[in-house]
Structures are given as C-alpha cells and as structure tokens.
Amino acid sequence: MLIEAHPVSPWQANCYLVAAGSGDSAQPTACLVVDPGIASLDVITHALEGRRWQPAAVVLTHGHIDHAGDAHAVAARWGVPVYCAEADQPMLQRPSLGLGTSFVGIIEEFLGADALPLPADLRPLVEPFEVAGLRVRPHRAPGHTQGSTLLEVSDGGSSVVFTGDVVFAGTIGRTDLPGGNMSEMRETLRRIRSSFPEDVPLLPGHGPDTTLAAERLSNSYLHDSYLHHEM
Q1: Residue 51 has what pLDDT?
Q2: pTM over 0.85
Q3: 71 Cβ contact partners less than 8 Å away, ≥ 6 residues apart
Q4: Which of 26, 155, 199, 216 is 20 to 30 A from 53, alpha carbon to alpha carbon?
C-alpha cells in the first residue's frame, strides 16, 4: 500500500492519498482520498499530476471543515462518492455546526458564507466496503465529534488506521466543540487500545504518524490511570 500525506488548510490537517499495492502500474491506478479539508483540491490535483492515480472515492474521518471542507469539490472533480458518518453529514453543508457560532466569522472569511454544497453522492459510513483495491472498515469513535470514525484500511498485504482527530502522536483530539464528549472519548480510547494490534500504524488528522504500541507507552490518554478514571 502506498500512502501520501499532504497537510492542507490553515490548520495543517493531513489529507491522505492511498493506493493499493505499489501504485506504480503502467495502467491507471485507483486511489482513495481521505479527509480532503478546505483548500485541498489544488493540493490533490497537483499531487496527482504526472501520476497515473485516479481518485475512486472520498472517505471522511469526521465532518470538521479542516478535514472535509473540499470533499464536495474533490467528489465533483472526479465524479466519485463521499463517505461520511451520518451524524457529521450536516457539518458538510453548514460548517459552524461542528465548531460553534464563535467560528462563523473565520468560516465566512474562507468561504464567504457559513455554507457549502453537499456532495452529489453522499453515502453513510457504517459497513465495510471495498474500493480501489482497498478494504475500508469503519470503526465508530465518538468523542471529538459524534460521527468521528476510525478508518481501518487494508490492501490484503498491510493495514493502517486513519484516526482523524481522535488520537494524535502523544495526545488526543479536543472534546469541547459541539458534539464532543470526554466520557465518549474515553470509551473510544478503551476500544482502540483493545481492538487493534500493537504494531498497527496510526495515521492522524494532524501531525506525524505513530503506532498503537508507541501511544500505549508515551500517550497518557492511553494509560490505565486515564482510561479507568471514574468521572
């Protein structure tokens, strides 16, 4: 599996391009676009120039504008579907629903209004599916947003987990925005720690990649003292 990370938006969110196998076939290679945040269309277009990669689908870890703001534009440019958990889909049309009214001014600076067009082919993200030679298995992971979803992606030879804004290297996503909930985040983190192999790569929505083993060792939010703390 080949994975490219491209930081996009003023928040430097990671947008990922994922292709099965080596991705260097002489034939056009379908790829997956994960989290095309605001201002990512030009970045993605430039990254694909000179390559034989062709987007086959867009998949979102959650609905915040820094991860999903250009989902409609990427989908329209290549005529592909967008997968997003239903709980976060309203944010794709009205970004402030995921950030709060205090962000409306910032959103309007970027977009001109607190509004975006919905992707023409918007699909729920619940069941595993196959696309571009990849198997995508969603794992519900509320805490940062109600629709936050971990994406376990495999090409049959290797697997990775895209964690969005749930787990970063050394920390976790904030829970104080609309739809965030610390108790739900704690339960999500418990499931992460028990559900995935220690050596699985974790590819977050911001910052460098890591592994579950590294986070169990150095991330205090994945230690027993936090996970089993009674609120």
Answers
A1: 83
A2: yes
A3: 36, 58, 60, 82, 84, 92, 119
A4: 199
- pLDDT (tens digit per residue) in 180-190: 999 999 999 99
- Superfamily classification of domain 2-227: Ribonuclease Z/Hydroxyacylglutathione hydrolase-like (3.60.15.10)
* Closest to 105 in 3D by CA, of 97, 115, 113: 113
Pair 153, 162: CB distance under 8 Å: yes
Q: What whole-number distance in Å separates Cα of residue 2 and Cα of residue 109?
A: 35
> Does the CA dihedral 12-193-18-141 come out positive or negative?
negative
Residues with pLDDT less than 70, the chain: 22-28, 229-231
In 3-state terms the chain splits into helix, strand, coil percentages (rounded to 5) of 30, 25, 40
